[in-house]
Records
---
Amino acid sequence: MKVVKTIAEVREQVKQWRAEGLTVGLVPTMGYLHEGHASLIDASHRDNDRTVVSDFVNPMQFGPTEDLESYPRDLKHDTELAEAHGCDMIFNPEPEEMYNKNFSSFVDMTVLTEELCGLSRPVHFRGVCTVVSKLFNIVKPDRAYFGKKDAQQLAVIRHMVDDLNMDIEIIGCPIIRESDGLAKSSRNTYLNDNERKAALILSQSLEIGKSIIKNGVTDCKEIISAIKTKIESEPLAKIDYVKIVDVETIQQIEKLDRPALCAMAVYIGKTRLIDNFFTEDI
Ligand code: AMP
């Protein structure tokens, strides 16, 4: 497996693969890989002849007060994990390789980015759409893999690909969790022991939401209220949002009369964690 730092090297390798008639899958990540990322690499390895993993902490998707500097990084670990799951090339550029000093083009999206994480992280999705567009242009994959963990991101990318006629199949992959239910995340490393225990409130409260829905409740206010009550029972937790939205438009709905996404962002101490479920997966 190759680890490359430049766009030219990626292009050269992908050109060779294309000349051999091979298909290419792309797994965009910010590194510090865990089993969640591994499941995306597995899916790409299953569907494609070659798999590229991008490993890039994208400065453009962090707000000025967010955790860009402290975001965990470990390229050696990432290389081992990615290779073990069938990755053929890691693209690990420096920020200057992706954004030259005159960089001035952005991919911006309205509507879908104006809810959920887009409200608390105003520059986030512009950074995500811009970097993912660049990665698509650099790698030109047949398929790209994204986790349902970042459900709004998945909807935004699907919408972008559709709006901008990008000829790439977007594959959404299930959330991988720790054995106690906490969704795996590179940011879980920020949690101390007490916070790690408290963080279970996210998945536990979502389970309450699911069971209410299974019992036939369709009123979103009622479902959200039960979830919030559970989260508020945990002293270390502070709710950013708990909302139920249409899976495609990411606009809030009042009744579960269409496929919906129940999503939350919750601070555990200083760490902001996200989790969700899709009603179609219940
Ligand atoms: P990140 O490195 O956090 O930007 O994530 C890179 C990709 O991995 C995104 O598509 C995420 O949705 C996905 N991902 C992160 N955590 C998980 C998880 N626990 N289960 C499934 N996919 C995940």
Note: The chain has ten helices and nine strands.
---
Amino acid sequence: MNKRRRIYEGKAKVLYEGPEPGTLIQHFKDDATALNGKKHSLIDGKGALNNLISEYVFVKLGEIGVPTHFIKRLNMREQLIREVEIIPLEVVIRNVAAGSLSTRLGLEEGSALPRSIIEYYYKNDKLNDPMVSEEHITAFGWATPQEIDEMMSLALRINDFLVGLFLGIGIRLVDFKVEFGRLWDNDQQVRIVLADEISPDCCRLWDIASGNKLDKDRFRRDLGGVLEAYQEVARRLGVLTETPRPRGAGPVLVTSNDGKPN
Ligand code: UDP
């Protein structure tokens, strides 16, 4: 019987008390939601795929010096993470117009943006996560100007790295959402670290060869094949192979039917 104390339950994840103070267990559920929870389904196996994909991305980001909450994956559904105070903002980084940006500014989905754009949304389900400016963030005390600078510079580093990572496996990183948390070290100094997850649930990933969507838009827009799309991302990243890959091995090269690199 599972007697762990549940700290928080969100739409796609549950946080449990961790084995040591300052740690938590992040459990990935199979639930898929959209329209602020109004649309809901269970997609068998999605949680495990997101766990594997997010582990891979967080480990790689850690290796290039991006501080994260990730400690280690515990099993197919769960990761051990550091407990952080989540900053109540969704930080969205965009490279290509899509989704709400296309709607808001009348930009055709798929048109390249002049440069990467960062947006902030206030995490509040009752208000449907409204977009906010730095003025709102500092005036209402959700983050300090220094924390905004730190989040922005981390977000751009994460974006640069992930654009290249996904390009290497034939995928265009259109946009994605990240969350940050405050982590206290022993000297009670606060550090901003990447928290939550990075998976096809919170990214737009388009197959470069076909233009197919390999992300949650398949669920949001009733395109079908949600699990298959997530599996494809996991397979290309090399986290779905039956035999373990050697340590330090990079992403899997995408080849066309004739075996030549794309
Ligand atoms: N996103 C997310 N959670 C949210 C809202 C957006 O993970 O609550 C991600 C979404 O998957 C996309 C990016 O943030 O990769 C930008 O989303 P957008 O603002 O276009 O909103 P949407 O069209 O998804 O409502």
Note: The pocket of uridine-5'-diphosphate is lined by residues 90, 92, 98-101, 129, 175-177, 202-204, 216 (CB under 6 Å).
---
Amino acid sequence: MTNHNENIFPVFHEIHGRTEKETLLKQRSKVIWLTGLSGSGKTTIAKHLEEILFGKGFLTQILDGDNIRSGINNNLGFSDADRFENIRRIAEVSKLFVNCGVITINCFISPTEEMRDLARKIIGSDDFIEIYVNAPLRVCEERDVKGLYSKARRGEIKEFTGISSPFETPENIDIEIRTDLLTIEESVKQVLDMILPRIIC
Ligand code: ADP
């Protein structure tokens, strides 16, 4: 494959920079990366969080399987290489949002430390807030929000995280939210209390 990088000339110095955009939006942009098993509560927390932040005047963008795998990553499957490429592109897209002053709230299982490290490296550790949304597998399986655990148990989904593919406990988190022990409101409040000081101008 031809490498076209030598023919690309970034012009970022000629246009409004991130700081100006953050000032315009009256916020500091970050990537809030929610990692955890399917059914642990990432989407639920993200939606509530966006609603509250919106009410407080913060501009956010949720990134999740629905808007990423159906669009920019619709050519990717679930092989190891594709899972990495999935995370790499998500991280690059998040970085564009951050450079535009927007806070992204990312809901991805991102099951291995290597994947989360890749995302942190691309986005930059100052802008990367890692939240472990944690409920025991038993609880997630009982919830079975999308019926995926039943399918995985029946062997209809191969390499399903928690069942036939590992989830590595995150080592570098900013906070862990135990959604089996907290209500949704309590979970969201814990996240909010942690991120607000980092996004207020
Ligand atoms: P994920 O996005 O991680 O796959 P979802 O947010 O789709 O998970 O599903 C989580 C389920 O758990 C929802 O049905 C939600 O109502 C329920 N739930 C119970 N307690 C909590 C909590 N404290 N935080 C988030 N979700 C919770």
Note: The domain at 17-199 is CATH 3.40.50.300 (Rossmann fold).
